[in-house]
Design the sequence.
């Protein structure tokens, strides 16, 4: 009887150990950047950044009253390349609705980003900005790219896409904001933290 009781205790310990191992294993590989952004529902961090080609800085304050879509990108990011045309077409489609797109180069020199845009094409209504020292990316809590933030007309961050976006998701998010909704965070795929290799 005593041996049987010890056996059940052993089984119980083994079950608990397996359950703990499963939970622990499920945490490995989890991207800590996928937790909900603390910026959601908060005033958007201000920025005052020069265009990639130089010239007068663009300030978030200057865009007050618009819905602002802030995308962080780099030429070395495959997902950024994949979503680029969707950003261009959506920016153009909403240009007459007081929706402004801002694309901020992430950990890349302005000439490299400009060379990429020459090849990939660009929207004439999008601001393409440099971010020296990644100060704006840090302020927005960017963990990897692409990341896209949506700021409502009151200057509050109400939405975020982590990973590659598409025209449907971008348009639906903007439509929701125009209805007064807060779309929150959507994870659409992988992000990159630095150039491969």
Sequence:
């Amino acid at each position: 009887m005593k041996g049987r009781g010890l056996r059940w205790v052993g089984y119980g310990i083994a079950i608990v150990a397996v359950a703990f191992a499963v939970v622990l294993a499920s945490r490995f590989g989890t991207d800590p950047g996928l937790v909900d952004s603390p910026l959601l529902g908060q005033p958007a961090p201000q920025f005052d950044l020069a265009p990639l080609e130089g010239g007068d800085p663009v300030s978030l304050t200057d865009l007050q009253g618009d819905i602002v879509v802030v995308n962080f990108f780099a030429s070395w990011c495959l997902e950024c390349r994949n979503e680029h045309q969707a950003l261009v077409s959506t920016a153009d489609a909403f240009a007459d609705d007081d929706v402004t797109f801002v694309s901020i180069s992430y950990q890349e020199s302005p000439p490299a980003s400009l060379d990429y845009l020459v090849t990939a094409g660009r929207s004439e209504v999008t601001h393409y900005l440099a971010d020296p020292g990644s100060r704006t990316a840090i302020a927005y809590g960017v963990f990897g790219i692409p990341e896209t933030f949506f700021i409502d007309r009151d200057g509050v961050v109400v939405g975020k896409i982590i990973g590659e976006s598409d025209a449907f998701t971008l348009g639906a998010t903007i439509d929701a904001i125009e209805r007064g909704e807060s779309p929150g965070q959507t994870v659409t795929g992988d992000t990159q933290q630095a150039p491969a290799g």
DSSP finds five helices and eight strands in the chain. Strands lie at 48-49, 58-59, 67-73, 99-105, 126-129, 147-151, 157-162, 184-187. The helical segments are 2-27, 78-93, 110-120, 135-139, 167-178. The first helix runs from residue 2 to 27.
